[in-house]
Amino acid sequence: MRHPLRPATRIGRIMIALAVTAAMPTALAAAPAAAAERTAPYLNPRLPVDDRVDDLLGRMTLAEKVGQMAQAERGAVAGDPEMIGRLGLGSVLSGGGSTPADNTPEGWADMVDGFQAEALGTRLKIPLLYGVDSVHGHNNLVGATVFPHNIGLGAARDPRLVRRAAEITAEETRATGPQWTFAPCVCVSRDVRWGRTYESFGEDPRLVTGMTTAVEGLQGRRPSRDLDDPEHVLATVKHFAGDGDTKFGSSTTGTYTIDQGVTITDRRSFWRTNLVPYVRAIKKYDVGSVMPSFSSVDWTEDGVGNPLKMHAHEELLTGVLKGRMDFEGFVISDWEAIKQIPGDYPTQVRTSVNAGVDMFMEPYSAPQFVETLIAEVEAGRVPMSRIDDAVGRILTAKFELGLFERPYTDRSNASEIGSREHRAVAREAVAKSQVLLKNDDRALPLDRRDDIYVAGVNADDIGNQAGGWTVTWQGQSGDIVPGTTILDGIERYAGDVTYSADASASMDGADVGVVVIGETPYAEGVGDVGNGHTLNLSAADRANVEKVCAAIDTCVVLDVAGRPQIVTGLLPKMDAFVMSWLPGSEGIGVADVLFGRRPFTGRLPVSWPRSEAQEPINIGDRDYDPLFRYGHGLRTRGHHH
């Protein structure tokens, strides 16, 4: 476990060190400064981390400390790498889709190591921490294993599988340079109109809490010992807190309707619904960092109408997170999130630092941030004790990651990226995530000997089945990553397959029709319903279902989407209906359950609405009457033909 800094102890040590130095013979005291630096306690890996942190903090200037609290985007430093040394930056990140020109494991490692060399050229040689959104695999890297998004893993109900997927994600990420991921999202999704629904494991806080095994997979079983291994990364639980529980229409960010909105609730309900997963992530798995939400909370105890942004929320960040939950890692802000706090930039910086944010994701304004925070401290508006607390937490992570001893990328696991073994785990996760919602007359499993007609664009589009946060922030349709589509999987099982994206090819002789419907990729508030999106099926999807189900005796419909879609009127036309979620790179896992190689075992992690107007609907509601209940999922037995 990490331990909070003890300023009194640190001051005591510094006073003893000064006394010892004063008593030294003159010749010894005049030893070269370089030798003294080499033997500095913070550079001694045999000393306890707390002692190393205390020693290093005692040597740092205010400017060096504030530099550690700043994080810039790789796009901002790539053209001016010397910025890292000039500011003494603590961290660099890749935002979604921000990749080196050579988007290969070697290209990534070379980039990160180049940035690291700049950091090591500074006076105290404090290494850089590199962060990336590895949210369903190392998804920015082409060729990485891409797992189902969290909502699919929530449907699988398998915490051990979640841990294993996170282990693979960590290994593939660290082998390319980044030592830190902004994952997992432990939000509790209470309204599927939210564009980030697929980033949530589900609507029930107990389910989400059970999936915090992802933290252990990323960091190792004992982070204080395991984090310096080349197969682990620092994890981040996000977004603290309530981001999945905001009121529809409350967002003030651009055209967003629900993302970054306001959670209107009382403190007791907020704890029970939104905070519980963080307790497990911190107390059991010792998560290294926490990212606050863009959203606000408006306590009903004092009347509604005075929401407070999470990045300004001292009660929750310092009082609850660092106090009541005893979180000993560091708090990293979200992308430019402090700029949503009212007031001018110095007010935004001062407010968030004093509220408890430790490191600031200021992608393109890191120089301004550093200059501003130094001025705020010098003016007495931010106490030095707050700076020392923040920097001590950041340095603790760097020591535990082993960066002072091994700052450069250990590339020994690079050959495992996208390996057959890793893809096999992703394929298992896909199969276990499939939820069989309807299965009349045992339409499923399919018989390999059947003549199968497949329709729908999403049957053969790996970009659509991977969803957002894949290679780019928003994701994109098309052949963007290596892997198998659902159609590829069906063709591996059945000998007689006809594919027609728009169901225009002849259906004569077909025994079974498989129609794949769903969404195209989006991320965050861009995907909010009402922001150019709806839960209703597209006209093309509706037409495909109606045409195929009318013409072929057995009609199976698969939904490839990040959330439930409205199928109420079409459901009677289907013999079988499967929710496939966003399976990622291994579409063959869908075929595994369609043909009975694996049984259907998945269960809904969210309630399935009858209409868009029924949202929000969640298990435990007073008049709970969804189309499919939370936890619904039919089972089949696996078989072989």
Automatic annotation (TrEMBL):
It is an enzyme of class 3 (hydrolase). It catalyses: Hydrolysis of terminal, non-reducing beta-D-glucosyl residues with release of beta-D-glucose. Keywords: Glycosidase, Hydrolase, Signal. Pfam families: Glyco_hydro_3, Glyco_hydro_3_C. Residues 61-396 form the Glycoside hydrolase family 3 N-terminal domain. Residues 435-634 form the Glycoside hydrolase family 3 C-terminal domain. Its EC number is 3.2.1.21. Residues 1-29 form the signal peptide. SUPFAM superfamilies: (Trans)glycosidases, Beta-D-glucan exohydrolase, C-terminal domain. One of its GO terms (molecular function) is beta-glucosidase activity. Belongs to the glycosyl hydrolase 3 family. This is beta-glucosidase. It comes from Actinomadura algeriensis.
